[in-house]
Design goal:
It is a single chain. The protein contains 13 helices and 6 strands. By secondary structure, it is of the alpha/beta class.
Length: 317
């Protein structure tokens, strides 16, 4: 499976995969000043929000973005009230569990002690990598222990941070902090080991191709525009624009991108929908916060739940 689909990977990183890239504390929910209620009322709607109901049982689906800025918050009163009315917050994974995260990275993303990233690269690839590390202000040593796929993802996320979007301000982290303040239980749909295994399963040559393409995107300066377009679509609660970006990526790279669409989105969407269905059947009424791209398209989680007999109401039409 040759990697020719970095644009789709970018969409996945920003709105399809929750992972703790930042060492900073997560985004805190707003404090409770006298005008807190007015701040929530005046906050613009952001992301995607759906109500799921059947037989008197209700859940909420909120589409997140996995980077952000302080001015993305607070989220509006509709989201805050929906979480307050729910039995628990359910996220893709709880990125505040740093010990679990670090252990999974060690298992999946780190080279054996006897290997270094440089030893796996051609001289030409090493030279191109150094140019991008210098541009991003990263010492070469910071990625030497990483497998090529993890080095590629890390370069992409650092470039996004240079653009001003920080994983410490991921919507998921804000909601986790808010849920803790409301004494809501927090559950996960997936595990970090499962998510990292999606990339760790690709072959060595595919990993090198992925790193090569990542460097090409950085060299050509395409990342900035694609990142901004995705963030703008999320800020505008524009499900159509989000879905259109994913479809354009698939049409540009039909072979590999369709593989990614299947593995990274479609398969996971079906698993998420089944898990949410089981929670509702068991009497839970969860607030489910997952990457916004999981809520779009014909195989998005809302559509899959509708096929299971649930009524879906778009609260951000």
């Amino acid at each position: 499976m040759p990697f020719r689909s970095l644009r789709l990977i970018l969409l996945w990183l920003l709105a399809g995969w929750q992972f703790a890239w930042a060492d900073q504390p997560p985004a805190d929910p707003p404090a409770a000043p006298a005008d807190a209620q007015q701040q929530l009322k005046s906050a613009p709607r952001r992301g995607l929000l759906y109500e799921v109901s059947r037989d008197g049982k209700t859940a909420y689906l909120f589409g997140t973005i996995h980077v952000g800025r302080p001015d993305f918050f607070p989220l509006d009163l509709v989201v805050t009230q929906a979480l307050a009315q729910s039995s628990e917050l359910v996220v893709e994974l709880d990125a505040t569990q740093t010990d679990k995260m670090q252990a999974a990275v060690q298992r999946r993303a780190i080279l054996p002690d006897s290997q270094r990233l440089d030893s796996l690269l051609t001289p030409a690839l090493r030279k191109r990598l150094q140019v991008q590390l210098d541009a991003l202000g990263l010492p070469r040593e910071t990625i030497q222990a990483y497998k090529p796929w993890m080095a590629a993802l890390s370069l992409t996320m650092v470039a996004i941070q240079v653009q001003g979007f920080n994983p410490a301000y991921a919507t998921d982290l804000y909601l986790i902090a808010l849920a803790k303040g409301l004494d809501k239980p927090i559950d996960e749909l997936e595990s970090i080991d499962y998510q990292l295994a999606l990339f760790d399963s690709i072959t060595h040559q595919e990993q090198l191709a992925f790193l090569d393409e990542t460097l090409q995107i950085l060299e050509q300066g395409q990342l900035r525009g694609d990142t901004q377009a995705l963030v703008d679509a999320w800020l505008d609660s524009d499900a159509h624009a989000l879905q259109q970006q994913a479809q354009e990526s698939i049409s540009e790279n039909p072979r590999s991108a369709r593989w990614m669409q299947q593995k990274i989105f479609s398969d996971r969407n079906h698993q998420m929908a089944e898990r949410i269905d089981r929670m509702l059947i068991a009497g839970h009424h969860p607030f489910v916060a997952i990457g916004a791209l999981h809520l779009t398209g014909a195989d998005g989680v809302p559509t899959l739940l509708e096929m299971r007999g649930y009524r879906i109401k778009n609260l951000y039409p």
